[in-house]
Amino acid sequence: MIKYINCDKKNYLTVLNNLLFNKHKVDQKILKVVEKIIRDLKKNGDKALIKYEKKFSKNSTIKPNKKAINKSILLLDPKIKKAIDFSYNRILKFHSNQKVKNINYKDYLKNIINYKFVPLDSVGIYVPGGNASFPSTLLMNAIPAIISGVKRIVLVNPTKDGKQSPGVLYAAKKCGIKEIYSVGGAQAIAALTYGTNKIKKVDKIVGPGNIYVSYAKKKVFGEVGIDMIAGPSEITVIGDKNSNPKWIAADLIAQAEHDINSQCILISKDFKLIKNVIRFIKEQINILPRKKIAKESLKKNGLFIYSSSDKKIIEIVNLIAPEHLELNLKKNNKIAKQIKNAGSICLGKYSAMAATDYNVGSNHILPTNSSAKFSSGLSVYDFYKRISVINLSKKGIETIGEQVIKLANYEGLVGHARSVEVRIRRK
Description:
By secondary structure, the chain is an alpha/beta fold. The chain contains 17 helices and 14 strands.
């Protein structure tokens, strides 16, 4: 049974907060397994990597050869190749607009302060593959890295039934990725972080994964850069009396089929819409190949919220800070303008979230678990470092230095003050 909250009741915020908080709890048993794998990989390298691949995926091939990759790609349906090509072109075109510009500043004292963008040297892309094939995820991660000018892009992708996804391999070829490894899980994250004889370590790891991958990324952060701690997928839909309940039901099911931990929420001022969406979910879900996953997801994390107030709806959305937000409303401008916490926002009845997962052009690597309150989706900017370059003139250090000395002494950092004092010309 999908949970229901009536915002006309006084305790609705407490109930909602409790539901959201429960998602953030750490599974200590899984965390201990992840920590053990990371320690083992750090100490034993390839030996541990192969051990865990055999244990979890029955896989003993760490790096597939070029012949095996090309053979796999040849088996891919030409229609799927065409769809991947189409997505590639749209994602590339949109992300190419995310240009960076170095800042060159010179003040009246002829002090020069520059701010330059430098692409990362190496990036590891994790593409899930144990339960399904996700070439779209490879494109979403690789294309911004390519545009940024990252020199070395590494793909790690677990096998399914002993084989890597032909779709992912074709997408990798399309992106010019030559360094491909058929590994997954926490062991893949550890290998990218610390390096082994077979896999050279990287500077940053991007891409979503299951709970083991997410915990591993969180654990190694600091020794390597990461994009975000990606949790299960989320969607929040706001509908009104003009919304098509069949369409909304389909949107919620589309998100629920990702994972049993996916979060699907419908918010509306219309009781009849909520009732009809429930009816259509029951009708549509039974024809879904992944109906077992979708049903469990909706039972576990599905939520219908009724509110008679637009103000409350806006407050609730900003509290949830969903990965995906659909405003399936006849007039959405009023609400859209006041949404400040969301990974992406789809406006209008034709803007299906599912389309954004593939070829709209925007990125589908988005903040989850309410982290849209402080972070953004993956972009070209995530593959740059930003460096300040300062060149002070003689007049510059003499002019600004007096104020530096005052503040440094005030803070008790006499060495800082002295470092500036020795450069100032004595009158």
